[in-house]
């Protein structure tokens, strides 16, 4: 007889650890005395994340495990992206540990940590979902926790505005996604992604294909909100600017990675084999790839061009992260040229995680102290702290895609995929290169501030421990993976091969 | 056979960068000394290579090839598919460019004595720049080439923007954006080749594109080949620079500190010519033959445009900047001629202009240090106060305008010889440029040396002295050496030249 215990629950160990830590933290926060320094909770959270990371590593190298009637599966795709999510979260929680804004965070610090872990849990469940229901539950867990996180500074007007905008936009996008999903369920009669995909392969009737197309576009629109792709990016600058900086880091890195995960889980896995015309000469994605390409193109252009005019550094990085999502979308739209479907996106997200979290760590350090978020906060940083400014320069160079950094290799990989496809995506890749040059304007604008301009104060910078760790890890990773990209790439290919179990 | 000599050559400046950390940042004297010494190993190694070559050693025994990384999980299909190796090698042509680079880097390190602030950062960037330049000329695959190419970009941005003159930030941005655009176009070309053929090795690509018969990852059509070549021309054209993409280069020449302009005019602009010859002619010989006439026309335009505008400049730096544009025209003319004399002339011009421009800009630095200006009118009567400097200046100008017995003459003569063979009319028009060159250079130099003496006080201004002689004498020696005995250049070039001629079927 099959009971609850006969499932291989071991596959969920990382999720259980995160869940357990979150519960533990919330109880602790409830009963701990008021004067207890809740900052220590961050270290507990960090321990949980590290444990989850280690347990995930120990789960590698097994056959795909699928439990709970295929709703939760641990395949190589899930492991690879969970590694990113966990690594990113470990860095973000360190940022949060060192976060000291002028007002507004003291009394809610405990909540911050366990909500953060809940959001992480949602993202992890999404990466492992084999079913629309779990996928949606994971998505909602992530989203709802993020809405609260964005409004964490209750007495700060901008933080409130940010949470409000986020919840309204996020709600709409979730509704649209869900509407699209309901079409899928209605047409195939199942919520299981695998069965759904098997059902869709045999559909050559153009009427049905039209409905599948409708579902595709609705889900695409909904998820474009999640990854802040143009033209659905409007919320991002306001939310990123108003949210506490660690939350901005979380939204721009972890939440965005989760967005790409769900795009792969639903859109790619279902539609890559579904026929796109009545004779099955083209698959659905081949036929409609141009729409994805359009979104990728317009996202890159919007992000990079609007970033040119920004003076607020967090806003600037919001647009920069929109642009970066556009680059990743190029890889999705071109399907990595066929040969690089997963590793391109994984590597770019890894590079993006390191460089963007690093940059946001510096931003947090500078803006916390002064309360001002103007770009001129960076002026003369080289005089005040040469090490800090060189570290920031590494992140900026990586974001701009300059050789010697991980960002360059990531971009190279994306362009390679775009050109290796037949016919090549020349226009899309050229747009990407063109806007990369545009991005030099604002990225090097920060460099100008740091290195060429005189400083307003001569006050030396003191770097708190958490931020110091984040900066060290991110800078070392960015440079190491730029000079020796074979390390992560060989790791990926050695352990996960072609991700062939993704479609099984 | 693998050896680490070339790796040592390219990365030897790194040692200096590391040692810089040990020196306190206010210790001007030791920093300058260390900066200078850090460029010496590369110079010694490249001289050693040249001597080895001259005594008949095969340069291929210095090449190195190590696995680096690979894209995609395609190892089981083909172990080399989308693999990027770390591979360095030199042949005669790149050996000459390496030698030019290391000589100019050492001399520019000497000229860096005029740098007034933040020597530590300056020399670190300077040495990084040298790594990039040496790497560009020795890289054996396009990805590696591109990486080194971009490595030159970042230090230059800072060197111009921080240590330059009044409008330095604008010049730095202008440099960054134009060169960023050039790299973007270049990267598109490189990645199309890489993605479609599965390799970025220059030799392998040359084989695939000219001989064929290799199965590709995805096809490259004939129109695509033309598109790629034209994109290459645009990418390297911005770098060279070809009119109308030259405005950034004027700003850099005027705003950057003289030591950096020496490097910039001497080596960085030459990467454009190097790339056109290596990749344009090497990988797309047939297509290059079809557009050769256009290149020659562009060359003549460059030559005349630069010369005419140089005529009316009041700042000596501007004269030299326009003169650089004009002289790069001669490179294009030589390439456009597409025969042995022409191409040889083009390469000679690359080296010769590198040396001459470095010499003249060093002298600009010498004068700027003393008078704080490089305006021709302000410097009138220079010969009375600084007779020796004026003499050097005149010698440099003579070399630049192509006086027989100096390197400029050999290169211009050969480039035009080549073009007259193919397109006599065009060459005749271009020859006007030679006359103009003499006019604008003599006008500028005579204006400075014998012009009206200004009332400004020249008290306490000393003649060129001590270590300042070193760059001038070395450069002049090389210029005259090549002019009198061109074989020191033409012999290493012979093999490269033959390979190119074989490719274009001349």
TrEMBL record, chain A:
<feature type="transmembrane region" description="Helical">
    <location>
        <begin position="208"/>
        <end position="228"/>
    </location>
</feature>
<feature type="transmembrane region" description="Helical">
    <location>
        <begin position="346"/>
        <end position="366"/>
    </location>
</feature>
<dbReference type="InterPro" id="IPR001750">
    <property type="entry name" value="ND/Mrp_TM"/>
</dbReference>
<dbReference type="GO" id="GO:0048038">
    <property type="term" value="F:quinone binding"/>
</dbReference>
<comment type="function">
    <text>NDH-1 shuttles electrons from NADH, via FMN and iron-sulfur (Fe-S) centers, to quinones in the respiratory chain. The immediate electron acceptor for the enzyme in this species is believed to be a menaquinone. Couples the redox reaction to proton translocation (for every two electrons transferred, four hydrogen ions are translocated across the cytoplasmic membrane), and thus conserves the redox energy in a proton gradient.</text>
</comment>
<keyword id="KW-0874">Quinone</keyword>
<feature type="transmembrane region" description="Helical">
    <location>
        <begin position="16"/>
        <end position="33"/>
    </location>
</feature>
<feature type="transmembrane region" description="Helical">
    <location>
        <begin position="426"/>
        <end position="444"/>
    </location>
</feature>
<dbReference type="GO" id="GO:0005886">
    <property type="term" value="C:plasma membrane"/>
</dbReference>
<keyword id="KW-1003">Cell membrane</keyword>
<feature type="transmembrane region" description="Helical">
    <location>
        <begin position="111"/>
        <end position="127"/>
    </location>
</feature>
<feature type="transmembrane region" description="Helical">
    <location>
        <begin position="133"/>
        <end position="152"/>
    </location>
</feature>
<feature type="transmembrane region" description="Helical">
    <location>
        <begin position="164"/>
        <end position="188"/>
    </location>
</feature>
<comment type="subunit">
    <text>NDH-1 is composed of 14 different subunits. Subunits NuoA, H, J, K, L, M, N constitute the membrane sector of the complex.</text>
</comment>
<keyword id="KW-0812">Transmembrane</keyword>
<dbReference type="InterPro" id="IPR010096">
    <property type="entry name" value="NADH-Q_OxRdtase_suN/2"/>
</dbReference>
<feature type="transmembrane region" description="Helical">
    <location>
        <begin position="465"/>
        <end position="484"/>
    </location>
</feature>
<feature type="domain" description="NADH:quinone oxidoreductase/Mrp antiporter transmembrane">
    <location>
        <begin position="129"/>
        <end position="431"/>
    </location>
</feature>
<dbReference type="Pfam" id="PF00361">
    <property type="entry name" value="Proton_antipo_M"/>
</dbReference>
<keyword id="KW-0560">Oxidoreductase</keyword>
<dbReference type="GO" id="GO:0042773">
    <property type="term" value="P:ATP synthesis coupled electron transport"/>
</dbReference>
<keyword id="KW-1133">Transmembrane helix</keyword>
TrEMBL record, chain B:
<dbReference type="GO" id="GO:0042773">
    <property type="term" value="P:ATP synthesis coupled electron transport"/>
</dbReference>
<feature type="transmembrane region" description="Helical">
    <location>
        <begin position="319"/>
        <end position="337"/>
    </location>
</feature>
<dbReference type="Pfam" id="PF00361">
    <property type="entry name" value="Proton_antipo_M"/>
</dbReference>
<dbReference type="InterPro" id="IPR001750">
    <property type="entry name" value="ND/Mrp_TM"/>
</dbReference>
<comment type="similarity">
    <text>Belongs to the complex I subunit 4 family.</text>
</comment>
<dbReference type="GO" id="GO:0048039">
    <property type="term" value="F:ubiquinone binding"/>
</dbReference>
<feature type="transmembrane region" description="Helical">
    <location>
        <begin position="92"/>
        <end position="114"/>
    </location>
</feature>
<feature type="transmembrane region" description="Helical">
    <location>
        <begin position="385"/>
        <end position="405"/>
    </location>
</feature>
<dbReference type="GO" id="GO:0015990">
    <property type="term" value="P:electron transport coupled proton transport"/>
</dbReference>
<feature type="transmembrane region" description="Helical">
    <location>
        <begin position="291"/>
        <end position="312"/>
    </location>
</feature>
<dbReference type="InterPro" id="IPR010227">
    <property type="entry name" value="NADH_Q_OxRdtase_chainM/4"/>
</dbReference>
<feature type="transmembrane region" description="Helical">
    <location>
        <begin position="121"/>
        <end position="137"/>
    </location>
</feature>
<dbReference type="InterPro" id="IPR003918">
    <property type="entry name" value="NADH_UbQ_OxRdtase"/>
</dbReference>
<keyword id="KW-1133">Transmembrane helix</keyword>
<feature type="transmembrane region" description="Helical">
    <location>
        <begin position="260"/>
        <end position="279"/>
    </location>
</feature>
<feature type="transmembrane region" description="Helical">
    <location>
        <begin position="343"/>
        <end position="364"/>
    </location>
</feature>
<dbReference type="GO" id="GO:0003954">
    <property type="term" value="F:NADH dehydrogenase activity"/>
</dbReference>
<dbReference type="GO" id="GO:0008137">
    <property type="term" value="F:NADH dehydrogenase (ubiquinone) activity"/>
</dbReference>
<feature type="transmembrane region" description="Helical">
    <location>
        <begin position="143"/>
        <end position="161"/>
    </location>
</feature>
<protein>
    <submittedName>
        <fullName>NADH-quinone oxidoreductase subunit M</fullName>
    </submittedName>
</protein>
<keyword id="KW-0812">Transmembrane</keyword>
<feature type="transmembrane region" description="Helical">
    <location>
        <begin position="6"/>
        <end position="24"/>
    </location>
</feature>
């Amino acid at each position: 007889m099959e009971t609850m215990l006969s499932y291989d629950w071991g596959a969920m160990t990382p999720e259980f650890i995160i869940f357990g830590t979150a519960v533990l933290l919330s109880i602790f926060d409830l009963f701990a005395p008021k004067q207890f320094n809740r900052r220590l909770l961050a270290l507990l959270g960090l321990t949980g994340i590290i444990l989850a990371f280690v347990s995930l590593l120990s789960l590698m190298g097994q056959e795909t495990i699928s439990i709970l009637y295929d709703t939760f599966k641990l395949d190589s795709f899930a492991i690879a992206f969970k590694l990113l999510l966990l690594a990113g979260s470990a860095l973000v929680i360190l940022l949060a540990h060192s976060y000291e804004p002028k007002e507004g965070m003291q009394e809610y610090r405990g909540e911050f940590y366990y909500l953060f872990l809940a959001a992480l849990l949602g993202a992890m469940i999404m990466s492992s979902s084999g079913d629309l229901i779990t996928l949606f539950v994971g998505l909602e867990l992530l989203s709802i926790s993020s809405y609260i996180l964005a409004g964490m500074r209750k007495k700060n007007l901008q933080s409130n505005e940010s949470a409000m905008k986020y919840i309204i936009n996020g709600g709409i996008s979730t509704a649209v996604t869900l509407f699209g999903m309901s079409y899928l369920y209605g047409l195939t009669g199942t919520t299981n992604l695998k069965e759904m995909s098997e059902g869709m392969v045999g559909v050559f009737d153009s009427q049905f294909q039209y409905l599948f197309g409708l579902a595709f576009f609705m889900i695409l629109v909904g998820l474009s909100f999640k990854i802040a792709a143009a033209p659905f990016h409007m919320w991002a600058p306001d939310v990123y600017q108003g949210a506490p900086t660690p939350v901005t880091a979380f939204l721009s890195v972890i939440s965005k990675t989760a967005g790409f995960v769900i795009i792969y889980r639903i859109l790619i896995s279902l539609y890559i084999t579904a026929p796109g015309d009545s004779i099955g000469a083209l698959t659905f994605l081949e036929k409609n790839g141009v729409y994805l390409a359009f979104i990728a193109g317009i996202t890159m252009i919007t992000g990079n061009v609007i970033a040119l005019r920004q003076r607020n550094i967090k806003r600037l990085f919001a647009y920069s992260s929109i642009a970066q999502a556009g680059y990743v979308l190029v890889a999705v739209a071109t399907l990595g040229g066929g040969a690089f479907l997963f590793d391109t996106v994984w590597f770019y997200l890894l590079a993006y995680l390191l460089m963007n979290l690093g940059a946001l760590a510096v931003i947090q350090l500078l803006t916390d102290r002064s309360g001002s978020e103007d770009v001129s906060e960076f002026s003369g940083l080289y005089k005040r702290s040469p090490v800090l400014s060189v570290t920031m320069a590494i992140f900026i160079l990586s974001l701009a895609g300059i050789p010697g950094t991980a960002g360059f290799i990531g971009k190279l990989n994306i362009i390679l995929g775009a050109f290796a496809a037949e016919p090549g995506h020349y226009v899309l890749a050229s747009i990407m290169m063109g806007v990369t040059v545009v991005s030099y304007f604002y990225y090097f604008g920060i460099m100008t501030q740091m290195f060429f301009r005189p400083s307003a104060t001569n006050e030396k910078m003191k770097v708190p421990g958490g931020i110091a760790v984040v900066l060290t890890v991110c800078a070392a990773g960015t440079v190491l993976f730029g000079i020796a990209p074979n390390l992560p790439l060989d790791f990926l290919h050695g352990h996960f091969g072609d991700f062939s179990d993704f479609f099984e | 056979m693998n050896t680490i000599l070339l790796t040592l050559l390219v990365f030897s400046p790194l040692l200096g960068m590391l040692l810089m950390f040990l020196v306190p940042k206010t210790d001007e004297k030791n920093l300058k000394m260390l900066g200078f010494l850090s460029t010496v190993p590369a110079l010694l190694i490249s001289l050693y290579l040249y001597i080895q070559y001259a005594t008949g050693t095969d340069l291929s025994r210095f090449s190195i090839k190590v696995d680096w990384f690979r894209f995609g999980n395609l190892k089981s299909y083909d172990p080399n598919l989308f693999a990027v190796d770390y591979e360095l090698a030199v042949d005669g042509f790149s050996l000459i460019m390496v030698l030019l680079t290391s000589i100019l880097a050492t001399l520019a390190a000497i000229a860096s004595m005029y740098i007034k602030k933040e020597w530590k950062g300056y020399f670190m960037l300077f040495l990084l720049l040298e790594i990039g330049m040496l790497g560009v000329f020795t890289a054996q695959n396009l990805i590696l080439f591109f990486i080194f190419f971009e490595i030159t970009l970042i230090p230059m941005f800072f060197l111009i923007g921080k240590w330059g003159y009044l409008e330095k930030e604008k010049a730095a941005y202008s440099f960054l954006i134009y060169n960023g655009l050039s790299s973007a176009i270049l990267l598109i070309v490189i990645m199309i080749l890489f993605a479609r053929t599965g390799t970025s090795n220059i030799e392998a690509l040359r084989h695939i594109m000219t001989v064929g018969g290799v199965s590709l990852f995805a096809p490259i059509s004939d129109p695509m080949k033309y598109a790629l070549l034209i994109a290459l021309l645009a990418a390297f054209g911005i770098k060279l620079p070809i009119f109308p993409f030259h405005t950034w280069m004027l700003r850099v020449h005027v705003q950057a500190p003289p030591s950096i302009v020496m490097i910039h005019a001497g080596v960085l602009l030459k990467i454009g010519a190097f790339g056109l010859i290596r990749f344009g002619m090497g990988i797309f010989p047939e297509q290059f033959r079809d557009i050769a006439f256009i290149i020659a026309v562009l060359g003549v335009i460059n030559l005349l445009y630069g010369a005419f505008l140089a005529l009316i400049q009041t700042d000596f730096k501007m004269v030299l900047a326009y003169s650089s544009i004009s002289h790069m025209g001669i490179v294009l003319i030589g390439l456009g001629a597409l025969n042995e004399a022409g191409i040889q002339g083009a390469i000679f011009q690359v080296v010769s202009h590198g040396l001459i421009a470095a010499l003249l800009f060093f002298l600009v630095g010498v004068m700027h240090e003393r008078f704080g200006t490089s305006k021709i009118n302000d410097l009138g009567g220079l010969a009375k106060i600084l007779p020796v400097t004026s003499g050097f200046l005149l010698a440099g100008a003579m070399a630049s305008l192509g006086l027989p017995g100096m390197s400029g003459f050999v290169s211009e003569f050969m480039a035009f010889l080549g073009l007259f063979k193919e397109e006599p009319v065009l060459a005749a028009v271009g020859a006007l440029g030679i006359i103009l060159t003499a006019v604008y250079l003599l006008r500028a130099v005579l204006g400075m040396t014998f012009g009206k003496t200004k009332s400004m006080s020249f008290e306490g201004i000393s003649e060129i002295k001590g270590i300042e002689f070193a760059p001038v004498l070395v450069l002049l020696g090389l210029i005259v050496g090549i002019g009198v005995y061109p074989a020191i250049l033409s012999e290493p070039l012979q093999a490269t030249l033959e390979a190119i001629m074989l490719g274009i079927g001349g």
